[in-house]
Q: What sequence folds into this?
């Protein structure tokens, strides 16, 4: 009987010990959020697969009234910034996200447009941004940064992804909101997860400078000060009008398909692109050439998706096609798409010739006129920071 009790006590003892061991390991294995130890978060980054070079870029942009000139400049220069990234020697793929912010009591506090490789969509989102509101000095910077770090769909699987935020504004954060996640916490989280936060201050408000410098320092970023207007200069060239004309012809080769919402989105993006300045359309045309000669970025163009093998005509229902194709037989549909593809290729050849001449003209103008080579403009500073920081990320994993 005593032997039996001793055996049962021993069994219970070892069972309890086993459960305690499991509990300890389970606590150590907690993942996600701020519960994960810093050492483990960094270890996970080190274990991430090394894929192709990629840039995940998020602009966190103050959209109060004093930022109107910079916002208009950003709309004009988003394609130029995108071009500067995909032409880096590292040849990265790119995704861009946008988060605009104001303050409590304004029309909104934050608006988030998630990371996407559809730069036409990014441009359309930017076109919707207007600068208004504000009035008092501090803004909801803390909330904006917290959402940018924690709500964007950052690529966390590729060790060759350069994750970067540009905080752009002219006013300091509200530090008196008790329910805010303060920037100190957000900067620590960004550093742990490999997100660099750069700060671009517009104007000369001294209080803003102090905060912007600290945010950049705490998240291994760079602090930049530029003019309130952003100093953005859009240079017109003798080739812009022809590129705009050819782009209009190229847009006519887009054949929308899929869900009605997707088809409508394509048309809206084409509308925003077609109604932009000729110089902006020229930058966009160059970007499209460098991304397999597309007429539009993102999903919903049947001509591009058939050519890339993403879809096949035979798999689509008539209800998924535009009205011009619904009454045609299979051979007629195929001939229609083939004709549009050939037209697109011919137009792209002409655009490529004009883009080459445009770039040569711009280079010559920069050499002749230093005023057109504004090194402290919003777009120039962004491009320089990206080039220098991405090089460190990509070279480290080569």
A:
């Amino acid at each position: 009987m005593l032997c039996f009790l001793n055996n049962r006590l021993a069994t219970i003892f070892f069972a309890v010990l086993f459960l305690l061991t499991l509990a300890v390991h389970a606590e150590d294995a907690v993942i996600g959020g701020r519960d994960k130890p810093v050492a483990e978060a960094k270890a996970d980054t080190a274990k991430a697969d090394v894929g192709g070079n990629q840039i995940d870029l998020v602009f966190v942009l103050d959209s109060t009234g004093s930022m109107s000139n910079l916002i208009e400049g950003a709309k004009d220069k988003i394609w130029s910034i995108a071009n500067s990234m995909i032409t880096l020697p590292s040849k990265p793929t790119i995704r861009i996200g946008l988060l605009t912010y104001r303050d409590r009591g304004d029309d909104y506090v934050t608006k988030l447009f998630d990371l996407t490789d559809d730069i036409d969509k990014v441009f359309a989102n930017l076109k919707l941004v207007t600068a208004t509101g504000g009035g008092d000095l501090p803004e909801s910077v803390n909330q904006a940064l917290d959402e940018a770090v924690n709500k964007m769909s950052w690529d966390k699987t590729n060790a060759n992804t350069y994750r970067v935020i540009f905080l752009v504004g002219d006013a300091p954060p509200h530090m008196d909101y008790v329910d805010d996640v303060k920037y100190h916490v957000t900067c620590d989280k960004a550093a742990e997860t490999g997100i660099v936060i750069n700060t671009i201050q517009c104007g000369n408000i001294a209080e803003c400078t102090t905060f912007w410098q600290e945010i950049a320092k705490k998240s291994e970023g760079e602090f930049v000060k530029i003019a309130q207007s952003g100093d953005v200069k859009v240079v017109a060239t003798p080739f812009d009008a022809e590129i705009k004309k050819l782009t209009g012809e190229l847009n006519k080769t887009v054949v929308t398909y899929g869900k009605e919402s997707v088809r409508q989105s394509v048309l809206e993006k084409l509308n925003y692109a077609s109604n932009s300045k000729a110089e902006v359309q020229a930058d966009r045309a160059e970007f499209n050439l460098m991304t397999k000669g597309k007429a539009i970025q993102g999903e919903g163009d049947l001509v591009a998706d058939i050519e890339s093998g993403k879809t096949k005509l035979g798999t689509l229902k008539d209800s998924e096609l535009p009205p011009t194709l619904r009454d045609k037989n299979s051979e007629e549909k195929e001939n229609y798409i083939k004709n549009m593809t050939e037209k697109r290729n011919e137009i792209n050849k002409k655009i490529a010739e004009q883009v080459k001449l445009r770039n040569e003209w711009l280079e010559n103008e920069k050499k002749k006129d230093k005023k057109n080579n504004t090194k402290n403009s919003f777009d120039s500073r962004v491009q320089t920071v990206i080039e220098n920081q991405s090089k460190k990320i990509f070279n480290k994993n080569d």
Confidence is low (pLDDT under 50) at residues 1-47. Residues 54-232+374-396 form a domain with the Rossmann fold fold (CATH 3.40.50.410).
